[in-house]
């Protein structure tokens, strides 16, 4: 069973999510006013419209329209109404970190930061405020990304009008064409990038850098991380960064992509208006030679990291080849993906059965136009040599013996089901995703086609996938002129020589292919006679109905076409976190993986895989404050069996021990990562700290993990799976199904369920007030620290407007913290302020302020946070500040409210408590109604020093006094081991 969608073949991820139908050449958007009717112009226009598809025979997606401006700027535009009123703009510059010289390392990324500070149209530092006034959330709706091969600028404009679209295009083009690169701006953003480098530094980054340097030895990819180095960034100046911009930021290296709720012709006109007069001096510089894999470089590397578990990377590295993207190329990509899926199925089956590794997967990638790599990632249990040998053995068998046609069909069924699902939901693909996929396709030299085009091509490809063909493909992707291996180990395993010896050791093909599995839904025991519906009522204000069955099961059903061909299911049962005491050990932490993987009735994981093969049937588990949840994304044809599977999990759970043991080992394997960095310490412990070490959120210690047994797991979860109440949500395309009958025969047919009385009521404690920060420690870099401060707020459904007001208060606090801590001082890359208001408890909410920092900046953080809090208490915010922070929140809600996921989340519990629906329906009004006086009232009510809690995370052995005494040099800021 696929509990999450299958990993996509290369084209899936890069050009699949595009709607429309296949067609011939596109018509030009703008004809020349001088010779529009001439044959020469027609040929030129056809060429301009053909720039993405040159040489390709892949069916086009006619929803996209293409063009090239006279100065070389290429563009792709299309109409898309998801979400309504939004236009997504992407500007791709054909320059990344592999275009830098040694002295310029990090410049592409630094320039990306500078671009967002301002331009000829925007004063320095004002860009964020301007975007906020447009309803844009900084960091998500407006952002940028630098990779080894490209720099991409992103702007998602909500509630678009002709005026703000024109202004947005003007401002973005000015930032890209003529950013303000002053010495002051370079110094400020260098500090931010240094903070980003410091915050990312640690064992995992060291491992990643060393692994890349080893796998791609002799290639630019091996030592051109986009973040750069402290040495090169420290020497960056306005002159040197400006020269980098002038060399690479050129119209003939730019692609502008627009997808959104508007006229493509108008999009093209605006591109011509704001990019058409862009001129630069000199010829376009040649793209650097990225290099090829060098077989003379060492094949084996041992990386010793005391805080990291055993891990192996085995890579078969081939030179990257530039290919025209054709139907034949698509066939190759699909078959390569299929060959990986066949091996991954066998590796996972071995891990389930208790093999020599916890997890092992293979993946073939085309990396940064530099290498064609097939990579095996292995987490050994203890004997790393055995794990490496076993994975090599599975690969050896894959290139020796053809797969069976049944094995091929099983994996092909998964791919086809995924393609059909995307085809059915094509019209609901967000414009932002379509724009991102177009940019990705340009970067890797692929084209885009429609979902129908993908399905049609796949049908022909599937027919060609014979056992012999797949054997040949396997031989191709698991062979290479260069094979390299990396062992990461907490203590030395004998050095590079020992790793090389293990790689060179003879390999024995492992003939452990999956045995044929038989399973049928008819094997599931009957739940009982169909249940009786006792009431059916519409929910006022919503296109949904409430259904209640005689056994107490309630359902909220919305039959809509928001996502054609898709049905979302969420079954809530029991009382979730409230089912356990705040001060008693529990096994809530074991449910996410092991509860689903431990089987259903007569079936284990392999049988469930067989049952759901090629179908849209899933099962995901989550824990909410007031319920446990089993959820799935299905389709109308599969809904009946989807509900049978979920009902079976509740009625006749199976208790296979292997998933529990695998979970235990997995937790223990990663346990020593828990204090390797400040972030790791926070991820594990923060929620427990905020709730005064409430056992429901405090992470389990090593002894608790070691003590986990299948018997203890069952004893904890069996009564909870059997508990009520049950509430089911079904939202989606239900026109062709009798959902009442399906519910009656599944959840409605279950016997009445006992409700476990919550042992600890609806109250959640908050961390005890401190006058000096509590201290926690990490074992990572000496230059890394973190600071947190928080205040308790509230919870429940009694004050929904206050919950919205606190979100705006948090946004204003975050905006001010960003300006002072990052934009002005460069002390942090990503400070964060978050408001949490639980609805399943009447307390437990908090406003949390935090940041990763250098130790020397801890005092500065606490001082700034104290000043911001005091100012919010004593002074009302301005109308502009309120609008700039409330507007993006309101826009996010407006966009999300067009989808079923949003409404299902907000309406959890609505069949039991009418206040839930009322609160969901009032969100937009509640946000709009928040005033400056409300913000100040909430600040006065909650941001009180006498209830404040603070914590600092320091390098082990350091004190706050030591941190304050550190100097501000780059060496002190970045630190070392």
TrEMBL record:
Family: Belongs to the peptidase M16 family.
InterPro entries in alphabetical order: Metalloenz_LuxS/M16, MPP/UQCRC_Complex, Pept_M16_N, Pept_M16_Zn_BS, Peptidase_M16_C
Residue ranges occupied by any Peptidase M16 N-terminal domain in the UniProt entry: 86-216
Pfam families: Peptidase_M16 (PF00675), Peptidase_M16_C (PF05193)
A GO term, aspect molecular function: metal ion binding
Cofactor(s) for this UniProt protein: Zn(2+)
Signal peptide: 1-33
Protein's organism: Sphingopyxis italica
GO biological process, one term: proteolysis
Coiled coil regions, renumbered to chain: none
Keyword flag Hydrolase: yes
This protein's name: Zinc protease
Cross-referenced SUPFAM superfamilies: LuxS/MPP-like metallohydrolase (SSF63411)
Xref: PANTHER family: METALLOPROTEASE, MITOCHONDRIAL-PROCESSING PEPTIDASE SUBUNIT ALPHA
Residues in Peptidase M16 C-terminal domain copies: 237-413, 708-884
Enzyme class: hydrolase
Keywords, ordered alphabetically: Hydrolase, Metalloprotease, Protease, Signal
EC number: 3.4.24.-
